[in-house]
Amino acid sequence: MWSGRARLAAAAAGAAALVLIATSRGVGLSPDSISYISAARSLASGGGLRVWHGAPLTDWPPLYPALLALLARLGLDPAHAARGVAVIVHGATLGVVGAWLVGRSRSAPVAWAGIAAIAVAPQLLWVSSWAWSEALFMLLSVACLACLDVAVRRPDGRWLAAAAALAAAAAMTRYVGVSLIGAGGLFLLLGTRGDVRRRVGRAAGFALVAAAPLALWLLRNHALTGTVTGERAPGQWGVGFNLSRVLLYLSSWVLPPAGEGAWVAVTHGLLLLLLGAALWLGARRLRSVRAVGAGGAVGAGGPAGAAGAVGGGGEKPGQLDAMLACGLFMAGYLALLVWSATTVALDVLNHRLMAPLYPPLVVLTTLATDRALSAAGGERGALRRV
User: Fold this and answer.
1) Which of 158, 149, 180, 157 lies closest to 167, judged by CA?
2) Over the stretch 301-336, which tens digit does the pLDDT of each residue have?
């Protein structure tokens, strides 16, 4: 029988294979992609981070094109390297989310439903099939949130340092990554155990370390061009329009959008079927464990042993911390995204810009479902004993 790590590794490999198939003819290229690839080629050839028309790269942070440039120095064309990055990043994202969910869920079927929701999500596969920085940003963001979840219970500081480094990398991948820095600092204030002084110190240290690379990059931009993030035209859409776009795309993650093709509808249907089956299996497993505990047939421990086997009185340690971290990041990301789309000219809010919300939303929803099933199982067990 496979171990849990082996199953997660196989799932991550399967997810990576889906992106490999989706990009069998190469990654998609948009105007943003051309800028990333041209900057990577310029850096690899010793010309610095400059886009195709010779201007310094300022509209986007440098990490994604710098990664492509590193691979170019190893002999890969940046356009081909973008495909390899997308394949590896999607598999790694599933591995991080999967390990997080398995470690925080009481019901294995529910955890694996969340893993499936990452592996076959059409919006993630679509974003990963283009030479864009969103997929890398998603990986760095969810890895940072997972490290923060561990850091609030580990006093040695290593997990906190890892979280700060990942937040810095996310902000150097997309400017909206500053929302992760703010969410992480607030999470450390609210979720960290200990006195107020210690919480403030940890939050301030995290924010300073995470923000330092981006601050240096913005200073570089201003020195070269007189702007911090490039020339930006005023926004064309109001807050109400942008909020309606947010609601539209959040709803499309449950119901397939009309006119997107049969394969999208089939993928959504399969995903909903998997989620329904997982909820049913999870509920059955929790009910059976509670029933065994009520009958006193769990070894020498009786009911107490059964309670201990599923985590005791209603939650697995860390669930609320993980949900809080995801919720704070999602709220900060959405607020910054809507504000940016309202004040400066961006693309109309779409699947690409909304995609980074999907992994933390899956984590939050999966853990909330796990808690709800556990609570319902406990209530039914108590009624049977009465």
Assistant:
1) 180
2) 332 332 333 333 345 667 889 999 999 999 999 999
Kindly report whether the global pTM for this prediction surpasses the value 0.90: no
**CA 362 – CA 370 distance, rounded (Å):** 12
Mean pLDDT, the chain, as a whole number? 84
pLDDT in the model for residue 34: 96
**Which residue type sits at 92?**
A
Structure tokens at 134: 């969103």
Place of tokens 């959040």: 250
User: 3-state SS of the chain?
Assistant: CCCHHHHHHHHHHHHHHHHHHHCCCCCECCHHHHHHHHHHHHHHCCCCCECCCCCECCCCCCHHHHHHHHHHHCCCCHHHHHHHHHHHHHHHHHHHHHHHHHHHCCCHHHHHHHHHHHHCCHHHHHHHCECCCHHHHHHHHHHHHHHHHHHCCCCCCHHHHHHHHHHHHHHCCCHHHHHHHHHHHHHHHHHCCCCHHHHHHHHHHHHHHHHHHHHHHHHHHHHHHCCCCCCCCECCCCHHHHHHHHHHHHHHCCCCCCCCCHHHHHHHHHHHHHHHHHHHHHHHHHHHHHHHHHCCCCHHHHHHHHHHHCCCCCCCCCHHHHHHHHHHHHHHHHHHHHHHHHHECCCCCCHHHHHHHHHHHHHHHHHHHHHHHHHHHHHHHHHHHC
> What pLDDT is stored for residue 107 in this prediction?
87
CA-only gyration radius of the chain, Å: 22
Nearest to 140 by CA among 87, 80, 202, 63: 63
DSSP-assigned beta bridge partners for residue 37: none
What residues contact 256, with CB distance under 8 A and at least 6 apart? 122, 264, 265, 267, 268, 269
